[in-house]
Amino acid sequence: MAEKRKITLKDIARELKLSPSTVSRALNGYASLSEETIRQVKEYAEKHSYVPNALAVNFRKNRTSIIGLIVPEIVHHFFSTTISGALETAKKHGYHVLVAQSGDILSGEVFACRTMLGLGVDGLLISISNETVEGDHIQDFLEEGKPVVQFDKITDQLVTPKVVVDDFNGAYEAVNHLISEGYRKIAHLSGRMEVKNAHERFLGYKKAVEDHGLDFREDWVKNCSAISEQEGYDFTKQLMESANPPDAIFCITDLVALGAMNYLKSARYEVPGQVGLMGFSNWMLSEYTSPNLSSVDQHGFEMGQKATELLIELIKNHDLGDNETVVMKTDLMIRQSSLGK
Amino acid sequence: MAEKRKITLKDIARELKLSPSTVSRALNGYASLSEETIRQVKEYAEKHSYVPNALAVNFRKNRTSIIGLIVPEIVHHFFSTTISGALETAKKHGYHVLVAQSGDILSGEVFACRTMLGLGVDGLLISISNETVEGDHIQDFLEEGKPVVQFDKITDQLVTPKVVVDDFNGAYEAVNHLISEGYRKIAHLSGRMEVKNAHERFLGYKKAVEDHGLDFREDWVKNCSAISEQEGYDFTKQLMESANPPDAIFCITDLVALGAMNYLKSARYEVPGQVGLMGFSNWMLSEYTSPNLSSVDQHGFEMGQKATELLIELIKNHDLGDNETVVMKTDLMIRQSSLGK
DNA sequence: TTGAAAGCGATACCAT
DNA sequence: ATGGTATCGCTTTCAA
């Protein structure tokens, strides 16, 4: 394994009969040096393709230019979109991104936080797991002076900047749309109410229903604790077979909506028409179902960008930030499944 | 910003009236130390929650425990699955993963390679871009003694271990299946032939067709250079409106197959029956289209795991590996779109 | 079994 | 404008 020994700053100094400090300054452009020296050093460095040892620089400067990014699950269209945005922004500012997934469980998140902190990331972007409540493991970053920005799935227990989607309003608009298309008996397949996003969407749903003087019925709200397609299928079956079947369903997520759609199709309901259907998240697949699934786009890419911008700014300012929350607008993606009754 | 000063190894040594070397040894379990000393040091370290400065350790040991991972596009079900597998395996072995996307263009890949090399990753996992030919930027890793493992999209120009999917056989089986279901006039929406995976799938398709004594017609093979849904739609239209319309289409990718399916549905062809359809990749969405799309599963997760295992082993053995290629089996996912004629 | 000390490579303070 | 040198925190010979 031929490993060519890399040239160091000291080597350059020795060869050029300069001091290491001078070479360092010439390369980094600090202080006052003669044009001639700078030229000479740069030329030599270029010629011998000198590359500073990042490990040494990081060590000395006590920073890594690495951002930690923790999401519940990478294999999830929304989160991968989010990551994509984060990568792009990080790259633009000369940062690298270390990615980890918590698997949506607390232990996974704690482990990821610990190892990232141990490695010395400069800051953390995190979308917390379903199980996270206290967040001491995240607090640890702040105590070491490393900024944290939460996004999408957040907790108010931690004082950090946050970037969230306007779940309430997104849900409100989605349900409004169903109503404007003529649906009147609107059910909601929700998530666990302890999860903030789920709760907000529920509240948006409820408000829209009430604002239009429609029935709000507890038994039209079903809790999908796993947010799975299966639950969408099962609860929809349950709703449609009940004494008071709804004529539209607003689902916490596209996946749940797919389950709902699959049941409705198998039971020969017309979608849209007999039953209107709305998802949330605008997964890629919603464009391709039949009928196409109407949904609410969360702009994951922009969200990742925004969170990363905030974080990098904090890192640069040696600031931990405060409790500010950036709320990203959603976009109603009207396709077929929600069209006129 | 209250930043509590972290305790160092020297601090422990001073407090315990030991030398730094002893403390280091006690903590790392090397050499022969008295039980008592070890206990004492560990206890003190624990009590003051000592965490070794990773930057210093990395610098000293000249390694980072970070693996670089470059894929064309994160927002792509197959690649995110792959990443997920890589993360899992890396975690198991105490490694971190720095993720970057090339955007499927050469310049993006070169940039990612450079920054990762500059940062000092211990090794590289890469699925190359469509534009990559020479691969000097990847060769740079090898020249610095850092192992590289290529996966999925690879080039034979570089002598590194590779993990690929058995595209040829996957395609062969897929087409066989269509034939066994009674289809006889099988077209292929292919990718660019310079891309190895695309070429292999084409060859598998061709072999299956020929092995059964069916017609192989050049005009039934269409090149989707962008591998887009639109191309799937357009070429399918073109095929079906031609003088010799096929009765089945094997698509290079599920996305292309979706385009094909959308055209066929809009033109009122029966799928399956009148036209059989097979995709490749087994995207999540293929389960949810209507009809469900038959596809070929590439086991992305296992692929990410395998590539990462190989890489970590090389890193640990200070080995660059050779040209070995691990071929992962594919799985035929038979759903509705390819069923009997 | 333990200690002393020499670095790893780059930076930055203090001189000159 | 440039040099000398301590230093970051840890590991690892070499000695004792």
TrEMBL record, chains A, B:
<dbReference type="GO" id="GO:0000976">
    <property type="term" value="F:transcription cis-regulatory region binding"/>
</dbReference>
<dbReference type="Pfam" id="PF00532">
    <property type="entry name" value="Peripla_BP_1"/>
</dbReference>
<dbReference type="InterPro" id="IPR001761">
    <property type="entry name" value="Peripla_BP/Lac1_sug-bd_dom"/>
</dbReference>
<dbReference type="InterPro" id="IPR010982">
    <property type="entry name" value="Lambda_DNA-bd_dom_sf"/>
</dbReference>
<dbReference type="InterPro" id="IPR001387">
    <property type="entry name" value="Cro/C1-type_HTH"/>
</dbReference>
<keyword id="KW-0238">DNA-binding</keyword>
<protein>
    <submittedName>
        <fullName>LacI family transcriptional regulator</fullName>
    </submittedName>
</protein>
<feature type="domain" description="HTH lacI-type">
    <location>
        <begin position="7"/>
        <end position="61"/>
    </location>
</feature>
<dbReference type="InterPro" id="IPR000843">
    <property type="entry name" value="HTH_LacI"/>
</dbReference>
<dbReference type="GO" id="GO:0003700">
    <property type="term" value="F:DNA-binding transcription factor activity"/>
</dbReference>
<dbReference type="InterPro" id="IPR028082">
    <property type="entry name" value="Peripla_BP_I"/>
</dbReference>
<keyword id="KW-0804">Transcription</keyword>
<feature type="domain" description="HTH cro/C1-type">
    <location>
        <begin position="3"/>
        <end position="51"/>
    </location>
</feature>
<keyword id="KW-0805">Transcription regulation</keyword>
<dbReference type="Pfam" id="PF00356">
    <property type="entry name" value="LacI"/>
</dbReference>
